[in-house]
Amino acid sequence: MADIEVSLRSIQTPSRVYDALSGEDIAFTINDGQVEFVLPRLHIHRAIVLDFPNGFTKGAA
Questions:
Q1: CB neighbour burial string for 9-48, b if at least 16 within 10 angstroms, e if fewer
Q2: How far is CA 57 from CA 2, 10, 13, 48, 52, in A?
Q3: For residues 42-61, average pLDDT
Q4: What is the number of domains present in the chain?
Q5: What pLDDT score was predicted for residue 1?
Q6: Model's pTM, two decimal places?
Q7: Sheet strand arrangement including 34-41
């Protein structure tokens, strides 16, 4: 699978979105309270991390 659009509701803006395994940053935008990004590829599974300025980290799979 490729170019998967992901949208997650959030009350905060993350400081960083990245792939948990590779550490590769993932470009993201904020649109009407949604954190939006595109996964360029997906093979079986992927763990994506959203880091927030207050130290809270949220994982998305």
A1: eeeeebeebbeeeeeeebebeeeeeebebebeeeeeebeb
A2: 25, 12, 12, 10, 6
A3: 78
A4: 1
A5: 86
A6: 0.81
A7: 2-9, 34-41, 28-31
Convert the pLDDT of each residue in 1-46 to its tens digit: 889 999 999 988 999 999 999 999 999 999 999 999 999 888 888 8
Domain that holds residue 20: 2-60
Smallest CA-to-CA distance from 15 within 1, 23, 5, 25 is with 25
* Alpha-carbon separation of residue 14 from 2, 42, 43, 53, 61 (angstroms): 24, 22, 25, 7, 16
Q: How many CB atoms lie within 10 A of CB 60?
A: 15
